Amino acid sequence: MYSGAAAAAGSPRRDFISVTLGPEEVVGVGGYNNSKAWRRRSCWRKWKQLSRLQRSVILFLFAFLAVCGLISYTSMGETWKSITNKSLDDQRTEQEIPRLKLANPAVLPAPQKAEANHGDYPELSLQKPPKLAHVRRGPSNLQIKAPWRGTRLKTQHDSMRAVEELVKVDKVEKTEKSIISWRGAVIEPDQSTEPPSSKITEPEKPSSVESEDQKEPVPINERQLAVIEAFRHAWKGYKDFAWGHDELKPLSKSYSEWFGLGLTLIDALDTMWILGLKEEFEEARKWVANDLAFDKNVDVNLFESTIRILGGLLSTYHLSGDSLFLEKAKDIGNRLMPAFKTPSKIPYSDVNIGRGTAHPPRWTSDSTVAEVTSIQLEFRELSRLTGDEKFQKAVDEVMKHVHILSGKNDGLVPMFINTNSGQFTHLGVYTLGARADSYYEYLLKQWIQGGKKENELLEDYMRAIDGVKKHLLQRSEPKKLTFVGELAHGHFSAKMDHLVCFLPGTLALGAHNGLAADHMKLAETLIETCYQMYAQVETGLSPEIVHFNLHAQKGQKDVEIKPADRHNLLRPETVESLFYMYRFTGDKKYQEWGWEILQNFNRYTRVPTGGYTSINNVQNPSNPEPRDKMESFFLGETLKYMFLLFSDDIDLINLDKYIFNTEAHPLPIWVPG
Ligand code: DMJ
């Protein structure tokens, strides 16, 4: 026996090999010749001693083993190659994991396909979930950046935060390869707002993405700064005395509740964004995040909460891209749905958002026509964003129903509709003012929102404007101002609500969207009248209602005011129309008129300790009799339209991309241009 142990004896290595040899070899140990030659000879002898068969078998075995060896070598090579590749792949995957983890779940729920096209109404256009979600990412082709960079009132702190914000946004934007214009929309190669049937196309106006991107930011001018100052003053009052409540009572330094949902704060969110008031916006956002709860046993008016709360949340979501606002919008939207559970599908006026019950006002089962037909822009948009068609279905149903309803007079609608029978009630009275106004406004605006495809809406709108021309237009004396009166059972009344002053803006918007050119002419005439409703009054502020003189009498003005109608609630309609008129004509007189109005608001309605107040008597400059209430629409609408009116930047809420709801909350046009 040979043991390597011997060789290893003096070595530190302890491993060894043991080999067992056959008896013949044992014999050779010591006395036998152990040379290589001897061994070669002995092997050869043994081979020769084998029979031919044995030799062939052995040779065959050798050959067989050699072939097997060769085959297994090749397949081992393959296995090895794949193992090597796999481990390389594994390494790559591991490197990618952190990258993939960055892709948060989408801000928006995955889109569902809308089932069917409902009549002439467009299919729901669902929003694609963004590729890379971020708390500040939303339907990015419509997000606009707040003009923080251009604001002169900016503090250093503001600047730093704005820069941080820009860096943050920039990172995400780079990842998404979006093309950004400073003030205008963010435009992405793959659009995220897209109706299922037709992809959103870039509007022809304004100019191309490149030139928009290269455009210098338009600096904020003195008049816009005056609006910012007015807003801050109003906000100070709200913050000091009414924070989180519905409306400020600036004189008594307290507040009033309507729904108990922070109405002014929500209504003002997108105004702050547009005005570039970032600190105020952030503060308000915190309140929305931490304190706004819709789970409350409270009755809200369907129309008011839709246009102010749902509309305000949706537009703020679009402007900021912050999904918090969409979540809140979904919540309130769902809670308002019980209103549609009526025998006729014409919604009830009131909903208890905590209990999920709805009812008409206590004294009637009627709803107001304007109210049930001016919630569509918001509910349709909510469907598009969530992919849940129930919202759009409910409000489209109302429009389809009203479209075929009898009781109209050349397209003009009565003011009430019954929730049981679905019929108009109180027939024979036609107005463009309270209770009917925004029906007309929303016919046009829904048509534009949906990409100008819903012919029934356009038909109803065109017919109604013809009805206005035929039945409601008259000229006053002595100045021959064209105004929109009312018709009651065949009798014309020269009464015009300030609310009617939305009409010039709406007519101009229609003309801008390709409707009859004479609509623009009428708009120009009517806005002059609305301005005169301010200019002919002692305080330079319009009353709630005026009566026009139809017959010339010595020393008389065109406008007469009844004692009960002398109040001014800080309403927006005239300023709203001035904004549209200036955008579409560029005529500076509209800015001048708006500037006069702002100064008069400052003169007669500003409360030194913060806030603005509605007044009881626009005819008494020495005592306009403050009413001690600042309506939420003063911040939501009036000041926003003022700011936009004084701007020369058509991309600051581009009217080819956005449609304003009746509370001045801009919502995206689904198929712009
Ligand atoms: C706002 O709530 C809306 O503009 C509505 O359409 C009419 N009333 C006020 C403003 O006057």
What percent of residues are in strands?
Answer: 5-15%
Termini separation comes to: 100 Å
CATH topology grouping of the domain at 222-259 and 367-664? Glycosyltransferase
Low-confidence stretches: 1-38, 74-139, 148-212
Q: What can be said about the biggest beta sheet?
A: 3 strands, antiparallel
Total strand count, please? Answer: 22
Number of helices: 21
Binding site for Ca(2+): 662
Pathway: Protein modification; protein glycosylation
Transmembrane segments: 56-76
GO cellular component, one term: endoplasmic reticulum membrane
Which helices and strands, and how do they pair?
Elements: E1 2-3, H1 4-7, E2 18-19, H2 23-28, H3 36-49, H4 52-102, H5 156-176, E3 179-180, E4 186-187, H6 209-214, H7 222-241, E5 247-249, E6 254-256, H8 263-275, H9 278-291, E7 299-301, H10 302-320, H11 323-336, E8 350-352, E9 357-359, E10 366-368, H12 369-372, H13 376-386, H14 390-403, E11 416-418, E12 424-425, E13 429-430, H15 437-449, H16 455-472, E14 473-475, E15 482-484, E16 486-488, E17 491-493, E18 495-497, H17 503-512, H18 517-535, E19 545-548, E20 559-560, H19 573-585, H20 588-604, H21 632-645, E21 658-660, E22 666-668
Antiparallel strand pairs: 1-2, 3-4, 5-6, 7-8, 8-9, 10-11, 11-12, 13-16, 14-15, 16-17, 18-19, 19-20, 21-22
Helix pairs in contact: 7-8, 7-21, 8-9, 8-10, 8-21, 10-11, 10-13, 11-13, 13-14, 15-16, 17-18, 17-19, 18-19, 19-20, 19-21
Provide keyphrases for this structure.
673 residues, mainly alpha, Glycosyltransferase, 3-stranded antiparallel sheet, disordered N terminus, binds 1-deoxymannojirimycin, calcium, calcium ion binding, membrane, EC 3.2.1.-
